[in-house]
């Protein structure tokens, strides 16, 4: 958190350059136009959102899972992006007659839809992960959806209010740290005895010039074709290879690297060839006073003991009970279970009370359930937990062959639970991520339709105009709706490609597909769409408001939003960077997934999406004469 806060305080506002030793230049926040205090207010937004989100989720009884502890780090990196977008939009506005109110209104009109759309898509993506069949993923998504919702709420209320106060501070020439000391117009920032007077630098304009050059190179037809081919090949490789990714979360991966239990697991595999585990077979509602039932029960236990990978057959409760009856001379009674109550109370049977459950504990002449156990060799090297499930299926087959129906039989071992989870992992991931992508699509459509409502209102007011003007407005409205729909499809396609590429990165890194990757893939949909939406909104604004053609609008979007996208991606990486040195494989895997998501999101948002927008977006043919081309943009200084 401190790392992100200091980074924002150094980069969010205006900076000066300090010259040390005559040659070393050090950027330093301008005492007035710097955003030191505002940057920490942005960090405070994350703290407030995390507290409110965790409290709200806990209020509804959601269990706090260990993976939920990583949420503040993710929220810190992601929600600070919205602060950067708002501040950068305000910095790019030009002072008008309306003063600061007019500037802030313009900035809010541009940043507001971006902030709302990206926040709501993230909330929706996590909310659709709540019904997951995996409890850990469901708990994580519940806390995440709550945190990101409150993050948006505090962003458009608390942070915007802080921004207004900070602008008033700048107008009064107060310092950016204490906000109380008035700073003279010309102030020398002295770092040491060799430092000279700080002078304003032109870093921002130089960076924007670099983005313009980048946009021109990227949208060159040859470069654009090569880039699209590379991205398509990458996604095709992901689709072809990710099916080979191993599934499962080994227990040692959640342990610290220096845990002695990891050494025990290693010894178990090397020396014993696996883990000896007890499999319990429970039969319910059977009349054990019937000789045929007892015979089938004994035959079933013997046949299960003959299965592959059985270590040893454990004695059953029936063996001990028969020995007790023989010792007490009650073997030939008409009712087989007539001495069961006395047996369970004796020293011979007190340890078997968990193996049998009586219908009437006072008499115990009939059983509600009974079980037997067998030791199997499980967790063998090179064998996944899902591959342990055939043991359970084989036991089920034996029990049915001995007249014990499936609805009256339960075969249980803790590893079977993890095996079932791993077996259903891919179907759960595809289903949840599919719903998340659809939810993101709908959310972007709803939030963007609000932006087009102005056009609908304008069309409604135009009924008093002549037919030509009315037809022109209807044509423009139809085109803008088509443009918005195309943007939705591009977002959907780009996010789906990012999800596939993320799985490819996991496969190449040797990671397994498990509950951690499940949660990260759901999260990736909400995070990756942020970079696409920011660039898409800038493109949409350039087409609608500035009347640029597609390529010029794509270049303008890169120049306008490129710095914010890169800065936001960097803050997210800084927020989760502490996990790179985590002491467990699970946390390091989480970091790798988030790191890859940010890299892929920025790459697709800054490289792939501009090409789609510039070359594949339909043009408004009726307005070709009005569209500004590249040369007109350059001549106008745009």
Spell the H/E element sequence: HEEHHHHEHHHEHEHHEEHEHHHHHHH
Query: Which value, in Å, is the CA radius of gyration?
Result: 33 Å
Based on CA inertia axes, which overall geometry fits? elongated
The largest β sheet comes out as: 5 strands, antiparallel
Mean pLDDT: 79
Name the structural class: alpha+beta
Count of individual helical segments: 19
Helical content class: 55-70%
Alpha carbon gap, first and last residue: 38 Å
- Give start-end ranges of low-pLDDT stretches: 188-202, 450-465, 621-625, 631-638
Number of strands: 8
Portion in beta strands: 5-15%
Write a concise synopsis of the structure shown.
The protein is α+β, with helices and mostly antiparallel strands and 638 residues long. The chain contains 19 helices and eight strands. Strands 4, 5, 6, 7 and 8 form a five-stranded antiparallel beta sheet that branches. Strands 2-1-3 form a three-stranded antiparallel beta sheet.
Explain what the structure shows:
The chain is about 65% helix and about 5% strand. The protein has about 650 residues and is of the alpha+beta class. The strands form 2 sheets. Strands 4, 5, 6, 7 and 8 form a 5-stranded antiparallel sheet that branches. A hairpin with an 8-residue loop joins strand 6 (about 355-360) and strand 7 (about 365-380). The two termini are about 40 Å apart. About 40% of the residues are buried.
Any key phrases for this structure?
three-stranded antiparallel β-sheet, five-stranded antiparallel β-sheet, 638 residues, 19 helices, alpha+beta
């Amino acid at each position: 958190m401190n790392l992100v806060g200091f980074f924002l305080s150094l980069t969010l506002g205006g900076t000066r350059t300090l010259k040390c030793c005559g040659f070393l230049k050090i950027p330093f926040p301008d005492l007035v136009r710097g955003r030191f205090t505002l940057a920490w207010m942005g960090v405070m937004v994350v703290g407030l959102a995390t507290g409110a989100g965790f409290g709200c989720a806990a209020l509804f009884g959601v269990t706090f899972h260990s993976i939920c502890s990583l949420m503040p780090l993710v929220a810190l990196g992601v929600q600070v992006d919205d602060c950067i977008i708002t501040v950068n939009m305000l910095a790019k506005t030009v002072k008008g007659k309306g003063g600061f109110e007019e500037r802030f209104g313009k900035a809010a009109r541009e940043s507001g839809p971006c902030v709302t759309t990206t926040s709501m898509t993230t909330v929706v993506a996590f909310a659709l992960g709540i019904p997951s069949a995996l409890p850990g993923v469901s708990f994580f998504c519940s806390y995440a959806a709550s945190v990101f919702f409150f993050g948006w709420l505090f962003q458009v209320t608390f942070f915007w209010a802080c921004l207004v106060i900070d602008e008033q501070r700048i107008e009064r020439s107060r310092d950016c740290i204490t906000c109380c000391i008035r700073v003279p117009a010309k102030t020398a920032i002295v770092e040491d005895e060799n430092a000279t007077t700080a002078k304003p630098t032109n870093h921002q304009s130089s960076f924007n010039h670099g983005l313009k050059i980048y946009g021109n190179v990227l949208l060159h037809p040859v470069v654009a074709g090569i880039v699209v081919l590379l991205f398509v090949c990458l996604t095709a490789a992901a689709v072809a290879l990710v099916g080979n990714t191993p599934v499962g979360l080994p227990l040692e991966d959640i342990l610290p690297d220096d845990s002695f239990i990891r050494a025990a697991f290693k010894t178990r595999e090397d020396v014993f060839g696996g883990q000896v585990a007890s499999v319990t077979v429970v039969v319910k509602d059977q009349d054990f006073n019937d000789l045929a039932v007892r015979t089938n029960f004994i035959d079933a236990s013997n046949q299960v003991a003959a299965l592959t990978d059985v270590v040893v057959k454990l004695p059953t409760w029936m063996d001990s009970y028969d020995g007790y009856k023989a010792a007490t001379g009650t073997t030939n009674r008409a009712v087989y279970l007539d001495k069961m109550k006395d047996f369970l109370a004796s020293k011979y049977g007190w340890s078997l009370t968990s193996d049998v459950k009586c219908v009437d504990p006072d008499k115990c002449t009939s059983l509600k359930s009974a079980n037997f156990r067998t030791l199997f060799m499980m967790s063998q090297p090179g064998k996944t937990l899902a591959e342990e499930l055939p043991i359970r299926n084989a036991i089920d087959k034996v029990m049915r062959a001995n007249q014990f129906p499936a609805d009256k039989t339960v075969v249980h071992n803790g590893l079977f639970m993890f095996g079932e989870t791993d077996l259903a992992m891919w179907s759960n991931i595809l289903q949840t991520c599919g719903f998340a992508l659809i939810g993101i699509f709908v959310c972007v459509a709803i939030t963007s339709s609000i932006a087009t409502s102005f056009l609908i209102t304008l069309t409604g007011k135009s009924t008093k105009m002549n037919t030509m003007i009315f037809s022109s407005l209807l044509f423009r409205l139809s085109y803008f709706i088509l443009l918005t729909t195309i943007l939705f499809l591009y977002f959907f396609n780009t996010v789906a490609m990012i999800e596939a590429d993320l799985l490819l990165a996991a496969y190449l890194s040797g990671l397994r597909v498990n509950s951690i990757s499940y949660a990260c893939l759901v999260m990736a949909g909400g995070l990756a769409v942020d970079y696409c939406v920011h660039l898409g909104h800038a493109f949409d604004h350039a087409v609608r408001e500035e009347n640029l053609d597609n390529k010029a609008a794509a270049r303008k979007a890169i120049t306008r939003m490129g710095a914010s996208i890169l800065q936001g991606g960097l803050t997210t990486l800084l927020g989760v960077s502490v996990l790179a040195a985590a002491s467990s494989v699970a946390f390091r895997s989480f970091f790798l997934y988030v790191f890859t998501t940010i890299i892929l999101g920025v790459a697709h948002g800054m490289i792939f999406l501009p090409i789609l927008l510039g070359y594949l977006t339909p043009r408004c043919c009726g307005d070709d004469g009005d569209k500004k081309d590249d040369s007109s943009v350059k001549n106008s200084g745009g």
